[in-house]
């Protein structure tokens, strides 16, 4: 079955959106290179090694030519509102939304997004997220910004102050310690974030290396009275204070600072010593775990399965809420939901009819529960997320 679009005297026939398999996925690189010419060959080699193995690619063909694509990269996400044990869930990061120039403005992206989001809904994935080139592109499809990244510039200070921290480049042998560090730092400060396991850091090391960068570790110096139990791998874990991935190609860019917010000044002093060593310079910083000069809306998201999304959250007390939900893009989400909540979790079920305590859009529901933007009519006792931390690039 194909769709027909007429433009003046010309008629184009497009195939239906479909999940690409086998060699079809390899065709995506050619389209990527054509549309995103700024990406280096080394970065695309990294992407081939790590992403095409387990991601999903959707495409539309005109004849034998791939003319439009959307890629979904898998991520495990932690959703822990109010510091509860919460849930680890499968999600997808939407990337490489691209259409050949001569086929644009014909609704191909809309069709690809709808097909891919509907497939996620059928798999009961609760939400999806992306880093948009422009908010205006995704806003009509129900995506909304829910994470603002702390941004600023690391600048030289004269004289360069001392720090109690020492910096070194991380190695593969540090990955177990990095997993533990990320778990400790994220769980203590944030409530909606990426699960960082061994696979995550193995992939991150290769991604950073593809752009001439690396991952900087900041550690406390070993104390003189550290006993034998502190000299091995466990001691190294306990001394780690921050993980700082950075791009190395000019201009160098710090793409994240993962640390405790209260260690801000020591972290910045250590970074100045490492990157500047007394030279006058400055570097852009993105994704800091503490406040800097500004913030930038960076990650948009939306609900894919409303029932699964509601069941990620709990409440301070036992309560029941009937929600009338409208989703103008994924219409299967629209309807009436009975939501039973308590301190241990929640359950949601679809109702054929009944009285709604709250009427809202899918966008309003997402913003309320994913980042704490509570609209009128939403109850106060529901445990919602307030502190997302998502600095993913691909």
From TrEMBL:
Keywords: Acyltransferase, Transferase. It holds the Pfam family Acetyltransf_9. Gene3D superfamilies: 3.40.630.30, SCP2 sterol-binding domain (3.30.1050.10). Its EC number is 2.3.1.-. GO terms for molecular function: aminoglycoside N-acetyltransferase activity. The keyword Acyltransferase applies. CDD domains: NAT_SF. It is an enzyme of class 2 (transferase). It comes from the Bacteria. One of its GO terms (biological process) is aminoglycoside antibiotic catabolic process. Signal peptide: none annotated. Transmembrane segments: none annotated. Residues 12-163 form the N-acetyltransferase domain. This is GNAT family N-acetyltransferase.
């Amino acid at each position: 079955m194909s769709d027909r679009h007429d433009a003046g005297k010309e008629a184009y026939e497009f195939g239906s959106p479909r999940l690409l398999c086998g060699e079809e996925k390899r065709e995506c690189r050619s389209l990527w290179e054509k549309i995103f010419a700024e990406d280096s060959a080394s970065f695309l080699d990294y992407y081939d090694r790590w992403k095409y193995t387990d991601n999903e690619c959707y495409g539309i063909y005109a004849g034998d030519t791939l003319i439009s694509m959307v890629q979904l990269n898998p991520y495990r996400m932690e959703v822990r509102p109010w510091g509860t044990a919460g849930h680890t869930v499968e999600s997808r990061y939407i990337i490489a939304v691209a259409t050949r120039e001569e086929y644009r403005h014909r609704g191909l992206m809309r069709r690809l997004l709808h097909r891919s989001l509907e497939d996620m809904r059928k798999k009961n994935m609760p939400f999806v997220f992306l880093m948009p080139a422009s908010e205006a592109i995704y806003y009509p499809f129900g995506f909304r910004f829910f994470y603002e990244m702390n941004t600023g510039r690391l600048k030289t200070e004269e004289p360069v102050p001392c720090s109690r921290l020492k910096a070194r480049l991380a190695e593969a042998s540090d990955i177990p310690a990095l997993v533990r560090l990320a778990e400790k730092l994220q769980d203590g400060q944030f409530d909606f974030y990426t699960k960082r396991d061994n696979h995550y850091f193995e992939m991150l090391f290769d991604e950073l290396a593809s752009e001439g960068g690396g991952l900087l570790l900041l550690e406390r110096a070993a104390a003189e009275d550290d006993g034998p139990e502190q000299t091995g791998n466990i001691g190294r874990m306990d001394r780690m204070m921050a993980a700082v991935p950075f791009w190395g190609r000019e201009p160098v860019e710090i793409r994240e600072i993962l640390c405790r917010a209260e260690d801000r000044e020591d972290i910045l002093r250590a970074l100045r010593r490492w990157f500047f060593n007394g030279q006058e310079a400055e570097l852009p910083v993105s994704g800091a775990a503490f406040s800097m000069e500004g913030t930038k809306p960076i990650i948009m998201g939306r609900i894919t399965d409303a029932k699964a999304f509601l069941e990620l959250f709990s409440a301070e007390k036992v309560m029941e809420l009937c929600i009338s939900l409208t989703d103008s893009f994924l219409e299967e989400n629209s309807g009436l939901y009975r939501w039973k909540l308590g301190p241990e979790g929640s359950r949601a079920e679809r109702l054929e009819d009944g009285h709604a305590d709250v009427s809202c859009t899918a966008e309003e529901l997402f913003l309320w529960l994913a980042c704490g933007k509570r609209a009128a009519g939403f109850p106060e006792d529901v445990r919602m997320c307030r502190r997302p931390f998502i600095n993913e690039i691909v």
